[in-house]
Design brief:
- This protein has helices at residues 13-24, 31-39, 43-50, 52-67, 80-84, 87-93, 103-111, 123-137, 150-164; strands at residues 2-6, 28-30, 72-75, 95-100, 142-145.
- It is α/β, with parallel strands linked by helices and 165 residues long.
- Helix 2 (31-39) packs across helix 4 (52-67) and helix 3 (43-50) crosses helix 4.
- The mean pLDDT is 96.
- The protein binds shikimate-3-phosphate.
- Shikimate-3-phosphate binds next to loops.
Length: 165
């Protein structure tokens, strides 16, 4: 089973993904962490030193690698399906789940930890980025409200997976 998790910054892709992988007994992959490890730089340092377009090249290369794997839970970065690897490309190799949450909740989470998020500069900019990206995220096969307990998310996702796979 292969699952791609997409959603805006702060939507909980990494924490939910980790838990989901554990529950389903699958490996967990986090795009941002793997890019950071390989580059030996934090995301904000990659943006500053090499620019966003270089980051997107790394992101795409990694997703292309992932697409050859047969199973796993893949937590992507907030910009992945828009800038690097489309929802259609993800769907060719697995199920795509969009973790949705109200903008205010996302900003509240992200604004507390903006240091390693070069695209979370001000609320207005964050909100307009969210507005542009939302229709793309919505193309996922399944949309889950990530503002609920981890347990409820797990139950809901397991229900979806049992019907589709
Ligand atoms: C980005 C989101 C970040 C990270 C990078 C760019 C984006 O990941 O990939 O800062 O374009 O929204 P998270 O969604 O995990 O914060």
């Amino acid at each position: 089973m292969k699952l791609w998790l997409i959603g805006f910054m702060g939507s909980g892709k990494s924490s939910l993904g980790k838990q989901l992988a554990r529950t389903l007994n699958l490996s967990f992959y986090d795009t941002d962490s793997i890019i950071e490890k390989r580059a030996a730089l934090r995301i904000d340092q990659i943006f500053r030193k090499h620019g966003e377009s270089y980051f997107r090249i790394l992101e795409r290369q990694l997703c292309l690698e992932y697409s050859n794997f047969s199973s796993g839970v893949y937590a992507t970065g907030g910009g992945t399906p828009i800038k690097s690897f489309s929802v259609d490309e993800m769907m060719e190799s697995g199920q795509v789940v969009f973790l949705n949450a109200p903008l205010e909740v996302l900003w509240d989470r992200v604004s507390k930890d903006k240091n390693n998020r070069p695209l979370a500069i001000s609320y207005d900019q964050f909100a307009s980025l969210h507005e542009c990206r939302y229709p793309i995220y919505k193309r996922a096969q399944y949309v889950i409200n990530s503002v609920q307990s981890m347990e409820s998310c797990m139950k809901e996702l397991q229900g979806f997976l049992s019907k589709t796979i």
